[in-house]
Amino acid sequence: MKVVLLSGGSGKRLWPLSNDSRSKQFLKLLKSPDGRPESMVQRVWRQLASCGLGRSAYIATARSQVDVLHNQLGPDVPLIVEPSRRDTFPAIALSVLYLVSEAGVPSDETIAVLPVDPYVDDAFFERVQQLDFVLRDSGADLALIGVRPTHPSEKYGYIVPESAVSGRTYADVRRFTEKPSADEAERLIAEGALWNCGVFAFRAGFLLGELRARGLPAEYRAFRDAYDRLTAISFDYEVVEKVRRAVVMPYEGAWKDLGTWDALTEEMDGPVWGRGVIGPDSDGAHVVNELDIPVAVLGVPNVIVAAGPDGILVADRAASPRAKEVANEIRQRVMYEERRWGWYRVLDYAKLADGNEMLTRRVCLLEGRNLSYHVHRKRMETWTVLSGRGLVVLDDHQFSIQAGDVVRVHAGCRHSVKALSELEFIEVQSGSEVHEDDIERICMRWEDIPNRHSPA
Are 304 and 261 spatial neighbours (Cβ–Cβ below 8 Å)? Predict the structure, then answer.
């Protein structure tokens, strides 16, 4: 069995901490078994490894998430990168074709697909492993996992089986129902319906046949080349709801979608994350604070305060799922981003009287990581080292830096920096444009920088 995790999302449901480059699965607001901060994707990746599925897992993702995935899971995490965002049917098809065409997976191999961020116990992934048996035993085209509902939710889709199903058995799927009203959800649960948690499995050859039936390329490189011209459509609408035969297997354990602030704060380790104080007259309040200034809540029960570089949200717990509506109205540059080498936070931006721009960032490079060797044409940069040690290359000349040093990088200068220990510096960009697009990368690896040498 191979496992494909779908990592997508626009990063708006947990605004202001999530953004277009840091979707909800990357927020380190949970705790690992050893007590360290952990994101949803790190938690799932750890659970897959503990259940013996780590070596069989791949992540299908967009280009915008590659850096943060390398940052959180390491440079060797196996990624299948979409050329553009085209919804789940093209993404899953691209992943299967990669596994068959590039990784040599046989057509009778079981492929399990699941979201990258379910909040579940390890037992859930043991259930995922059983999908291989269910496919073989049933002869169905698709095998799904349905979660036993704990209440009549209007937020989830439902899978209605042909007959009652429990334990390790499975049943044919009669129909699917999308996000019903509360009354309809109660009737569905009475029929034995299960929550659709977005987990399903099929034979690789099944999807190859689906592609050929639609006149689409059934080879990885050809499909990738045609990707931008594909219709954006979900796998549910294109395949799951039209399939000849699907079966569902129940999962009786805990399962939760931590996609809203009210759901996420229920699973956090305490009511305050970051610098914050909640008064005794604020029952049910939560503070999530990424800023370096304290947040205090007094006399306001059931409130969620989320503060980060992109903004501050103050919401009644029941209204917090509407954070996405607010985020859709806000247009600004990303103020915090994780990269393969570390992270940066925007501290200030100004448009000067002469038309030039100035941007100030705090930059952190993790030990052993480096920026690409690159050039900016429209701006210069001044770095003031706060802590740590590193090596800098300017136009092929290499020298060491440490706390207190100042480095000036003029427009047109080839440059890079490598952290010998965790390295933090303040970077001031100034020029006609200060934008991420003003970059010409020469090479990515430190070892590939040409002709670098120390000055005599």
Answer: yes
What average pLDDT score do residues 419-438 get?
95
Same fold, 2-256 and 341-448: no
Is the domain defined by 2-256 classed in CATH 3.90.550.10? yes
Question: Could you check whether the bond before residue 16 is cis, i.e. omega within 30 degrees of 0?
Answer: yes
Sequence ranges of the domains in the chain: 2-256, 270-329, 341-448
With beta carbons less than 8 A apart as the criterion, state whether 416 and 441 touch. Answer: no
In the chain, how many H helices and how many E strands?
A: 11, 30
Question: Which residues are CB-neighbours of 27 under 8 A, at least 6 positions away?
Answer: 14, 17, 18, 39, 40
Closest C-alpha to 272, from 247, 301, 297: 297
Helix (H) or strand (E) holding 417: strand 415-419
Q: Which of 192, 201, 198, 193 is nearest to 130 (CA)?
A: 201
CATH architecture designation of domain 341-448: Sandwich (2.60)
Burial of 328 (0-12, 13-18, 19+ CB in 10 A): exposed
Size of the chain in residues: 456
- pLDDT at 164 exceeding the cut of 90: no
Report the mean per-residue pLDDT for the chain. Answer: 94
CA distances in angstroms from 177 to 145, 232, 236, 382, listed in the order given: 15, 21, 11, 57
For the chain, the 3-state helix, strand and coil shares in percent, each to the nearest 5, are 25, 35, 40
What number of other Cβ atoms are within 10 A of residue 377's Cβ?
A: 12
Looking at residue 141, the DSSP 8-state letter turns out to be: S
Largest CA distance in the chain: 81
Q: With 60 as the cut, is the pLDDT of residue 2 above it?
A: yes
